[in-house]
Sequence to fold (381 residues):
Amino acid sequence: MDPPPAALPHAADVLDALSAEGVAAWVVETAGTLAGCPVALYVVDLEGTHLARVDGDAGLPDAIPIGQAVGPELPRRHATEELEQLRARGIWATPLWLRGRAVGLLLSSREPAADLEPLAREAGVAIDVADRYTDVFESARRRRPMSAAAELQAGLLPPRITTVPGADLAGTVVPAYEVGGDWFDYAEQDGQTWVAVGDASGKGNRAAALSALCLGALRAARRDRRPLQEAVSRMDEAVCSVGDAELFVTALVGIWQPAPRTLAWIGCGHPPPFVVTAAGDVYEAPGASGPPLGLPVGASGWQSNELGLQPGDRVMLYTDGVTERRVSSGGRFGLVGVERAIREARSPSAASLITSLLALVLGAAAEPPHDDATALALLVR
Fold:
């Protein structure tokens, strides 16, 4: 009788025993031993269009094209479809799942002799933590040089895909390697979820620095458990403190409350939420919008608005880099393009909305976008 397989170490034990840089090699070596064949570890590149090899040699190319993903993460439905397509090409793949998204994949050129999913569960956690201490994984995700502004921008962003109480969220920023003035953010707190998108004036280093300062003010207020209106005021104070009257930030900051299914939001010179109901109705959320952050505040200041939602409703927060995107016909992407992306999504999931929007924005013209195009999608459950 064969001896029982040795128990796999927990992610915490792996992280304690190895350097952060050594985690990838451990995953590949352990997977190869279990599989009885060479295995390689891949991550998704920043643009969400290729799998990029981190470690290992399974006789596969360094980069493998895939369908448009949500930046460097694969949502579950998308990953399942990619696995089927890889298998048709003679490639066996095991996703490394973490909170509903694949943070990497184990690939081999022949069927593994053992189930790699138990290892993948521990490896996903280990890689997610190790990623904060080494450049091994981030270097693999880059297929060309990145500007300093875009690097700063990428470091500000939370995971692109998540599930929060009462909703699914997904967000993205394109292009991945330059510009750097946009951001999105979210965080669970006290049973509700803060959501936000922002767009700093200008481009490049100044825009990225201004975005970082504004987002820092939001996070500081949020972590101090300040109310929505005060958080916006602190963001405004941070932008004003730069002392340049030409600099400003447009933003939309909101709080999703799952029990009454409402989104309280404040617009700061920013497009309002775009809603597609479960029944298919489309509208821009009504409500007052105040001035951009960093500009003189009028007598009314920033007023909070409330949007009531139902299960199956979808909400898109976006920057004007989406709607102002040039299309090959000479016009603009516009809200018509946003609605088309939502309606053509392969599923109602937030991740599917974002991948659909990404594909249409990037494919709208031959030349890449000249401005950041950022979106955050919320699906009510």
The chain has a mean pLDDT of 93. The longest helix spans residues 204-223.
